[in-house]
Amino acid sequence: xxxxxxxxxxxxxxxxxxxxxxxxxxxxxxxxxxxxxxxxxxxxxxxxxxxxxxxxxxxxxxxxxxxxxxxxxxxxxxxxxxxxxxxxxxxxxxxxxxxxxxxxxxxxxxxxxxxxxxxxxxxxxxxxxxxxxxxxxxxxxxxxxxxxxxxxxxxxxxxxxxxxxxxxxxxxxxxxxxxxxxxxxxxxxxxxxxxxxxxxxxxxxxxxxxxxxxxxxxxxxxxxxxxxxxxxxxxxxxxxxxxxxxxxxxxxxxxxxxxxxxxxxxxxxxxxxxxxxxxxxxxxxxxxxxxxxxxxxxxxxxxxxxxxxxxxxxxxxxxxxxxxxxxxxxxxxxxxxxxxxxxxxxxxxxxxxxxxxxxxxxxxxxxxxxxxxxxxxxxxxxxxxxxxxxxxxxxxxxxxxxxxxxxxxxxxxxxxxxxxxxxxxxxxxxxxxxxxxxxxxxxxxxxxxxxxxxxxxxxxxxxxxxxxxxxxxxxxx
Length: 477
Fold this sequence. Notes:
With 477 residues, this protein is of the alpha+beta class. Helix content is 30%, strand content 29%.
């Protein structure tokens, strides 16, 4: 039984420890960590002043008025590893039944919207519907009878963007235009934690990416599906920014202090923790998807969720599922990206087309003799020019990734090359009657983790002054 007074005085929250490998895995709370607990059954009575609107984990099974002007609410939920509740006299409560046929989902959406943000209610509701649909269809059906969205009061944004089983806090501002999709992004992201932190009980202390990174990947895909890949985060005044670009902003300027997998309290800073377990891990998952194919990645994610829901997986467990479903050895990928703090950066470092004269000598076993000079009275028709075209691809980062290179010539001819990416550079040479005009590494943009898109392509003859290069790089991004 928790009263508001007692809740305000509580500084320590009790959770069920996880018994693993013959020992208890129980950590103290750290500034840069979240939680790790085992599943249980919660039945909680909450007593508050009668005028307060209450939201809590699970289904409300009873409520009664008390003689002292308070009201007691009882909530019950199985198969969760935490419990949260909120109370405020300025909440306006909205309830809506949500149903999905394939897969079968039946739940109740409960929105507790602060009256100052009432104009944002429809945005919240639609975003939550989108989240329920996307996660249920992409990974597995949402199993609980309720899902509660809590909108913090003005001035309480620090309480926003936090997840608990069947309940999460969102974020907005009363005047926020529709093109700034903060409420949508936070709603989908925090709802998604109900999967990768809630049902799949990831260890946030030791391997936070299993929740935050996988959920960032899921959020990127959901936001692109419902709001547009190139404008899922921002679409206002002609300015459009998608979730991939938004997360790349962090990765581009990142340092090399910490890898993705690390104890959460041991990162050099909160910024390094956030960069690695959110953006870098999310883009790592998207890079893997674009390399394996969306269908293969979809099967991996469904298999992982089904195998590990209501259990506690590790990084090795995720890799094992990915390898089993894809039928590939993925150690080369995960060992670099998860455990090394380095970067992925491939570039077209050089592009040349040099006219060559007539040749004599022995080439490929054939003797070529110089042509005899024509008589002075003869008319000479010059033959087609011949060029030695050269493309050099370089690896500037430490991570190694197989590369596709697209080379385009002046006559419209296109050549595709494949390189394993292991050496520091690779030169491709073509003797043709046409000049090379451009070259691009990773033309399908599989490597969303690439730290510098500006050096991925070159155009012959383009002046590469620092200012022009920077401008073109921005335009490319």
